[in-house]
Structures are given as C-alpha cells and as structure tokens.
Specification:
104 residues; alpha+beta; flat
C-alpha cells in the first residue's frame, strides 16, 4: 500500500502584514476598542460567539461528513476574538463576575 505525504510550500493562511489591504482601518479600529463599560462587555460577549457556529458533523446516507470551521476565513476573525477576550477579561477582573456562561 502506498503512503502519500503532502508538504505545504506556501502558507496556509494569507499573511497579514500591517498597513496593507483595504480592511486595515477596520482591523485597527477593532484593536483600539477599549472595553470599559459593563454593558458593552455584555454586548460583545453575546454578539461574538465563543466557537464557530458553522463547524458541524453532517450524516448523509450513513456517512459522516465534517464541515470545518469557516470563521477563520473571516479577515477580521483574530481582531473579533481579541475583542471578545478583552470583554471577558473586563467582566471577570474589573467587575468580578463569573464568565463561565460565555465560555463554550
């Protein structure tokens, strides 16, 4: 039986160099958002999901097909995750709240 190996000679995800691309102003704006309000932190935690809602397993005619997480294709995914983390940190550190209901 033959064994196939595959090596990637190119990066899997596109490189994100600062200062390039049309979405750079949006990325910078999201990175500069400060979570200093309890209501804003609640809103961010409710709106931005903790895991990708598109990832799932589908069974078709007895075969299981896995649909991978498609959120990582979003060009501002890393900035949204960082904003959600800042909101969770604000709620737990500053407000002293239990954030387990916002974590998957």
């Amino acid at each position: 039986m033959a064994t196939f190996t595959h090596t990637h000679d190119y990066p899997i995800a596109p490189s994100r160099r600062p200062g390039l691309g049309p979405l750079t102003p949006l990325r910078r704006w999201i990175d500069r958002l400060e979570v200093n309000n309890r209501r804003l932190a609640y809103l961010v935690c409710r709106v931005i999901p903790c895991c990708c809602p598109f990832e799932r397993d589908v069974t078709v005619l007895g075969y299981r097909v896995h649909i991978p997480a498609l959120c990582e294709l979003d060009p501002v995914y890393d900035e949204r995750v960082a904003l959600r983390f800042r909101a969770l940190s604000y709620l737990s550190d500053v407000c002293g709240e239990d954030v387990t209901r916002y974590v998957c």
